[in-house]
Predict the 3D structure of the following.
Amino acid sequence: MTTTQRQKERETAVIRAPHDGSEVGVVALAGPEDVRAALDANVAAARACREMPAYARAAALRKVADGLEAARAEFARTLALEAGKPIAQAKTEIDRAIFVFRDGAEEATRIDGEVLPADVVPAGTGRIAITRRFPLSPVAGITPFNFPVLLAAHKIAPAMACGATITVKPPPQDPLTTLRLGELVKASGYPAGAVNIVPCHVEVAQILIEDPRVRVITFTGSAKAGWAIRAKAGTKRVLLELGGNAAVIVEPDADLPWAAARCAVGGFTYAGQSCISTQRIYVHESVYTGFLDAFTGRVQQLKVGDVLDEHTDVGPMIGLDAAERVERWIAEAVAGGARIELGGKRNGVFLEPTVLTHTTADMKVNSEEVFAPLVTVTPYSSVSDAIAWANASPYGLQAGVFTTNLQTMFRLHAELDVGAVNGNDIPGFRVDRLPYGGAKASGLGREGVRYAIEEMTDLRVLTLKLD
């Protein structure tokens, strides 16, 4: 069968807006031959990418950023519709992706090495050693639905910056913006075939995990899927950015209005569908009532509704199954003694912003990743208890701490078993240049362009005998 015949017979998927089921676009799904062809192209382009000078890689990355900026409104509207993301938040995602590509352009010119003494032992007399980083190609990237542009950028930009090739499987729910991003990359001047986007079924995507030519797998998604990929990956380098049920600790000396306002943002932005969404809030008993009143007051002010309305804070969940799952978890918690302080009701794919109290650690709303507009609030008497409760989770992505006491802040930084602690802010605060990743079940490795470059390259030593 010719390529043209295969394309004509290729399966398609209709992408629908979560809030009303309307058609946003149609995507051709890659079959096994298409995925293998993408990897073939990666392999063929690997040398050209590796030998591409830093200034040229930087120029290609800047061109992608410029293209994103020029098409910002188009990208944001499509993203809002296909992902059910409120338009203001969609614009923020595009802005962050633009920054990641610009940051990639800078980091492309900063990949350095070292000159190391070899004469630390007699045999090394008259010798030196140098180190350089060399790209690992191909890279296989797999991204989730919640940030389809930004998280693709966090995989593509470092690959381009270090001269690697990459094939990305976008999320099935909202692949349109990722595919459009791929078009910008193809027009950037980076070698042809070096960056490929392949929407496909999960079964077909197994090729990316199993193909022996793939050197690095970078996956963002659920913990269950991520650790299953690692188990199958063999000798490949595996980077995992996985789930969380992020905790916040509010100390008695905290700025309560600020903490309440930020937690209202942190728990409900994009309907809580973020791995660093605020899920569990532990508040010192002396300020518990004051915080809860301020927090629920802020949550009541959030606007739920039309994703194309600039003032909407909370849109739909990604699908009916997700909304029904959380509805069941709320019912289970209430049956176990939890109290609904706010929300709790579902209307189709829309779930009211929900605040639960009187929950227990073993309830799903605390022990698992809820990935929904739902937050639990629990009092504590000792910061040691709050630390223990926060760490009792199998996850450890990011945490938020509200206190004006630096001694407490540094203690929490040392004792919370997470990838990052945000002082006087929510777990969801992220600067895209910083190292990002988790502990325990939340993953392996770090993202942020500079740190992802380290993961996508090999550090290679050259020794030189000088005499």
Notes: DSSP finds 16 helices and 22 strands in the chain. The first strand starts at residue 12 and ends at 16. Residues 1-5 have pLDDT under 50 and may be disordered. Residues 264 and 298 are 6 Å apart (CA to CA).
